[in-house]
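Protein: HTH araC/xylS-type domain-containing protein
Species: Brevibacterium picturae
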Amino acid sequence: MESSAEDSDRSRPKGYTSVGATRAKEVDFLASVGWHLKSDPDSLGLNGDIVVTDDFVVARYSHGPAVFEYSALEGPLNDDGVMLHACLRGELTLHSRTGVAHLKPFDVGVVQAGDFTGAECESSVTCMIVSFRGAEAHEHYQLLAGHSSEAHLRILNAATSSLFQGSADDLEPGFVQVQRGLEELAKATAIGSRLYPESREASLRTVYVRAVALIGTVASDADTTVESIAQDLQVSRSYLFKAFKDQGSTPSYELRRARMDMAKCQLEDGSSLAEAAASSGFGSVRKLRRALDVRAVS
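Structure follows.
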């Protein structure tokens, strides 16, 4: 079935949808969210659940042998979205403009949503997808994949399963908080996994990408340092600095900038200096004042 992105966007489902009807409806639904089936629909047998908002998608699904082409729909997720694919059962091959990744059970793949082009499997699979907007999306210049931190993945899977069991047709206004929680779980799963390009070479660019993502998650912890970031990424401090130097920056600067952005948001929301310092990772008003003075001068 052929369907343009424009046509799909007009009929794109919003809210919670449980999938598992006739073959024709399965194919139509998949096309409405950008997935175009290129193999025999008789072998698809799609079953799953999905929640879609303007800037977030979470889905858990099972199907038989299939080949899909993916056309990113117009919108925020296409512009600055990250897709996390997790294989729970079977084997799955992901395709993007920057590479190919073969996932086995408890493997995950992370790619910029606009670069993802499709997936295929030769036998039945069960998978999960979380798509979300993120400032780090442009850093995912290539498809990264590897074995997950199983603890993180199990928590993410349990959270999505609980969401689907309690979902209604119309999402409650408070769902935005649930969405943010799932986004953080997805980021933690990616960060806690050993992700590499298909070549398995931990390039400087790969270390930089993972470090930026990690900083965005742990900057609010006052105990986070350049040394702890290097330790979490399992690289030396000098190699971490080399990875950032290659991109014209330093890990110290990125950590300080992330904390400043958080503190600024807190202050704009009416928090005191002490509250902003505590919640943004500075640890003390003195350190926050110093950072604010430096930014004012620069």
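Remarks: The two ends are 56 Å apart (CA to CA).
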